[in-house]
Design goal:
The protein has one domain. Helix content is about 75%, strand content about 0%. It has 14 helices and 2 strands; from the N terminus they run αααααααβαααααααβ. Helix 3 crosses helix 11, helix 5 packs antiparallel against helix 9 and helix 5 crosses helix 10. It starts with a helix and ends in a 5-residue tail after the last strand. InterPro entries: AA-Vitamin_Transporters (IPR050638), EamA_dom (IPR000620), EmrE-like (IPR037185). It holds the Pfam family EamA. This is Multidrug transporter. Belongs to the EamA transporter family.
Length: about 300
């Protein structure tokens, strides 16, 4: 009886994490739409997105206030590094949305798990099994197809593609650092400090660039708030929390679902064209993500 109850609890926990994972994918898919709706500089958008997120998190982190400051110098340094990489990701990727299509920008982000896997191999000697590689391969093929019709040949579009690529590399580094820090730092504390470091880094960038910190319309503030709630709290925050239950490479695969939903939203809300090839490729992506999460497990490092 006790064994059966334990199995039921395990199934329930797995189902809850899977559901939260799906919610996170939907949440981050709205990010590109909100950025496109805003007329503010992308660095300002990202800065207020993160600062407002921390304001919303204050009630949850308050009870951890005493332990949040009892961190080692090494932990503070890695929190700052993770925050700076997250800030760089937002800055580069949001800038790409001003230069290329939503489909092209988001599809390039699907290379993030490749960067994560490469980083995991060199840093932790982590290897992937065949099912992980198969799922990733299927999803990446679908991702390439879904954005192929939108890849532009103009210098502006190519610059947007490059910025998205660099943004994918930056967030992969952020994910790898977070995977290790989450073993030592509470989830609420980790997210709060990383978001604060990221927002502050962007604030310095805005100060140097001369961007205005105020004078924005109620519409702009509404967009900043929506970005804090939908793709950040119900997207990136969920993924950071899930790092304690899922592999870093598995959590990073969430970006493969984003081009599907983001492209559909861009088609409906921004009137960007969406072809049958993109719709068909979307099914490939979803199948690849499901295959990776359902059957993929990272192998233990060599010599473990």
């Amino acid at each position: 009886m006790e064994t059966a109850q334990g199995m039921n609890r395990s199934v329930k926990i797995f189902t809850t994490h899977e559901l939260l994972f799906i919610i996170g994918i939907i949440g981050i898919s709205f990010s590109s739409i909100f950025v496109r709706w805003s007329e503010a500089d992308v660095a300002v958008i990202a800065m207020y997105r993160l600062y407002l997120t921390n304001l919303l998190l204050l009630p949850f982190v308050w009870k951890y206030r005493s332990s949040m400051f009892r961190l080692s110098a090494r932990q503070w340094a890695w929190l700052a590094a993770s925050g700076i990489m997250l800030a760089l990701h937002f800055l580069l990727w949001m800038a790409s949305l001003r230069l290329t299509t939503v489909a092209s920008s988001t599809v390039i982000l699907t290379l993030e798990p490749v960067f994560v896997m490469i980083g995991s191999y060199f840093l932790f000697r982590t290897k992937a099994n065949r099912m992980m590689l198969l799922g990733m391969g299927i999803a990446l093929i679908g991702s390439i197809v879904i954005g192929s019709s939108d890849f532009g040949l103009s210098p502006q579009a190519l610059l947007g593609d490059l910025l998205s690529l660099l943004g994918a590399a930056a967030v992969a580094v952020h994910m790898l650092i977070g995977k290790e820090l989450r073993k030592e730092v509470n989830a609420f504390a980790y997210n709060f400090w990383v978001f604060l470091f990221a927002a502050t880094a962007l604030a310095f960038y805005n100060l140097v660039k001369g961007n205005a910190f105020g004078g924005y319309s109620s519409k702009e503030w509404g967009i900043f708030l929506l970005l804090a709630i939908v793709p950040t709290l119900f997207g990136h925050y969920l993924f950071n929390w899930l790092l304690q239950y899922m592999k870093a490479a598995a959590v990073s695969m969430s970006v493969l679902g984003e081009p599907v939903i983001a492209s559909l939203l861009a088609w409906m809300l921004l009137k960007e064209p969406l072809t049958g090839y993109q719709l068909g490729a979307g099914l490939f992506i979803l199948f690849g993500v499901w295959l990776f999460i359902r059957y993929g497990k990272e192998k233990e490092p060599a010599g473990a």
